[in-house]
């Protein structure tokens, strides 16, 4: 995998926006660049990261440390919270089976023929 020094500042910004879920036109508006310029930078990013597509480029960037997650889901210093559900006791409750004939139809005179 390539190092982060291979990407320019503009390419890192574009890759960060791609990781945020923005498309080419949205990135162009945000960075005040034309969509064609964003496409050119994205092609360079794909080549430099040896990625097949945008998602693969983002995955490679996270794996190499070019991009980092700004807000981790759970801090490593805190324990994982326990579930708030009480523990199960005994077998799981069963639901009644559904049949083709409902109870209302079983007692009707048309079903006896």
Named at the architecture level, the CATH assignment of the domain at 8-64 is: Orthogonal Bundle
Counted by DSSP, the helix tally is: 5
Proportion of helical residues: 40-55%
The helix-and-strand class reads: mainly alpha
* Total beta strand runs: 0
Region (Disordered): 72-113
InterPro entries: Sig_transdc_resp-reg_C-effctor, Tscrpt_reg_LuxR_C, WH-like_DNA-bd_sf
Keywords: DNA-binding, Transcription, Transcription regulation
Protein name: Helix-turn-helix transcriptional regulator
Describe this structure in words.
The chain is built from five helices and no strands. The chain is an all-alpha fold. The longest helix is centred in the middle third of the chain and has 15 residues, at 35-49. The chain is elongated. Helix content is 43%, strand content 0%. This is Helix-turn-helix transcriptional regulator. Pfam families: GerE (PF00196). Residues 72-113 are annotated as: Disordered. It comes from Amycolatopsis nalaikhensis.
């Amino acid at each position: 995998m390539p190092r982060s020094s291979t990407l320019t500042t503009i390419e890192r910004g574009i890759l960060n926006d791609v990781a945020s879920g923005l498309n080419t036109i949205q990135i162009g508006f945000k960075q005040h660049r034309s969509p064609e310029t964003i496409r050119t930078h994205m092609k360079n990013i794909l080549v430099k990261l040896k990625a097949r597509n945008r998602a693969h480029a983002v995955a490679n960037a996270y794996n190499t440390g070019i991009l980092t997650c700004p807000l981790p889901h759970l801090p490593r210093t805190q324990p994982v919270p326990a579930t708030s559900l009480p523990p199960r006791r005994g077998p799981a409750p069963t639901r009644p089976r559904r049949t083709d004939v409902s109870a209302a139809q079983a007692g009707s005179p048309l079903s006896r023929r």
